[in-house]
Structures are given as C-alpha cells and as structure tokens.
C-alpha cells in the first residue's frame, strides 16, 4: 500500500514529518511511503533511506495563511496538491498532511474528489475520553452548516470508520444536543433525530457535550459550527487545567514533593488527552483516504497517522463507505 505524505505541511515541517515517516517506513515494511516536497529539504533530515521510502520533488508550499481555494488552484506544484494528485491518479491509496486544514479539504474536494452520493465530506478527529478509547466526532469544521440528511451521512461514515479502523463491533452513535430528550434542540437536530433512528447505525439518541468525555457514545455527530466550538472548548479547558496544575505544584517545596508523587498518574492522564496518540483526523466522504494531522504534530503523531492509514486501507474503508452510500444499507451488527 502506498501512502503519500505532505512533507512540507505543518508547524515543524519538514524535519518532524520526515522523522515520523522514516519511523513508519522502518516499522511497516508493507507500506511504501512517498514523501512529497522539496527534495533537498527532505534529504537534509533523512538519516537513512529504507527501500520503502521515496521522494516526489515539488517546488511550491501551501502556507498556513494562504486562502485555501486560491492556493490549491494556483499552487499546482505544491506538496499538498501533488500528494492529492497521486491519490486521484491511483499512484497512492492515501495521503497525510499536517498543513493548512482548509486547503487540505479543498484538495480533497477539487483534486481527489468526493465519493458518489456523498453531499459533503466531514472532518472526523478523535476526541480523547476518560476510558482511553476516545470518541470519533464529525463534522468538526469542514462545513459550518449541515442538513439533517447530511448528519445521517456523517453518522453512517463515522460508524463505518470506528468499525473498520478501531475494531468497534457495534459503534454507539450519538447526536450532539442541548438535552437528551428527542424533542430537544434546534430544527436541525429535531429533524435529524428520527432520521438517525431509521439509519443503519446503532443510534443511542441525543448526547450532551458534558457527557462526551465520559464516553457515552463511540461516534458523536454534529454540524461543523457546533462541533468546532465543542472541540476548541475541550482543548482550551484541558490546556488551562494542566497550566493551573503546573503553577500549583511548583509554588512551594511541599507542593513540589506532592507533584513528584503524583507525576506518574498525571503523566498517564495527560497521555489520555494527547492528540499525538491518535495521529490524524480523516476527511470522510473523499474518494480516497485523506488524513489531517495536527499542525503541531510531533514525529510520533506522524507515525501514528501512517498506522491509521494502513489499518484503514487494509479494511477498505473508502470502498465500504462508497458501497454503503450507494446501496443505502448495512448490517450494523457485524
């Protein structure tokens, strides 16, 4: 299986991206990694050259501040766009980028293309949960608005992803809402609720945001506006809590001693909430596997993104979603 990686995308590119790709190439010999970007910049960080790692040279880079649509259309020789072309032309089965999120979504839509029948692809990152298993959330920012029918498509795609990639036998799907009662919410959620009940998924009803970290479901569905607010709130709260704990534990010699005792447990707790452990978020609904790594990903996150892509390809994630959307049915108990 061939995986193209945008070597120039992300806050720490290309160094960190190359290190993560190299670690993945050494770990999984059945994966052929194509590093896409400036060859000289990439080679400067390659400490060795395994047979299953190659370089595709490009001259341009889509920057974080670039306007997505203009950048994709004008920078045709950028590392991100070329990686997308490799997927479209079947020279690679998947692509990974830690670069501009909007540009990557545009690349997925304009370069790779949508799965027939999918109205709008969705960004689906994993949100860490207290039990360590996480919840797949979609959409978290690819589209600010959604129709009830699009929410149902998100639910189906998310359920398939958790089943195929994470091995969850019967994923519990929840609808993000302001209350658990079926009649609660705005027009979008109230209309979507009965459609979810009829969909080929294990729908568990409405789930409030306060219950997301407690793993009340395996997949949480929402429009991109509400989802992105939820994600940023959770990230901000986690960051604030850890900063406050650090300040408290460094105030006096007694708190420092307490910190030394608690450090193993706190380290494990922080690891549960670390996005680097989850690797990348898929854009579900694209007719090829497109994964978005966090902009500040470390080498381990890039390696984990390759692991995710490898599992998804082994289980024919894109083909399964395409078949489900085309035929409109799936046995959710398998």
Commentary on this structure:
The protein has 334 residues and is an alpha/beta fold. The protein has 2 domains: 168 residues, Isopropylmalate Dehydrogenase (3-Layer(aba) Sandwich), CATH 3.40.718.10; 150 residues, Isopropylmalate Dehydrogenase (3-Layer(aba) Sandwich), CATH 3.40.718. Helices cover 45% and strands 16% of the residues. The chain has a 7-stranded mixed sheet with strand order 3-2-1-4-12-11-5, with helices on both faces. Strands 6-7-10-8-9 form a 5-stranded mixed sheet, with helices on both faces. β1, α1 and β2 form a beta-alpha-beta unit. 47% of the residues are buried. The C terminus is likely disordered.
Percent of residues in helices: 40-55%
Q: Largest sheet, if any?
A: 7 strands, mixed
> What percent of residues are in strands?
15-25%
Q: What is the typical, i.e. mean, pLDDT? A: 89
Uncertain spans, ≥5 residues at pLDDT below 50? 329-334
* Lateral arrangement of strands in the main beta sheet: 3-2-1-4-12-11-5
- The fourth-level CATH homologous superfamily of the largest domain is Isopropylmalate Dehydrogenase
Termini gap: 25 Å
Tell me the CATH architecture of the largest domain: 3-Layer(aba) Sandwich
Number of domains: 2
- Class of the largest domain, according to the CATH hierarchy? Alpha Beta
Structural class of the secondary structure composition?
alpha/beta
Mass-distribution shape: globular
The value of Rg in angstroms is: 20 Å
Number of helices: 11
The H-and-E topology, N to C, reads as EHEHEHHEHEEEHEHEEHHEEHH
Number of strands: 12
What name does CATH use for the topology of the largest domain?
Isopropylmalate Dehydrogenase
> What is the assembly state of the chains in this entry?
single chain
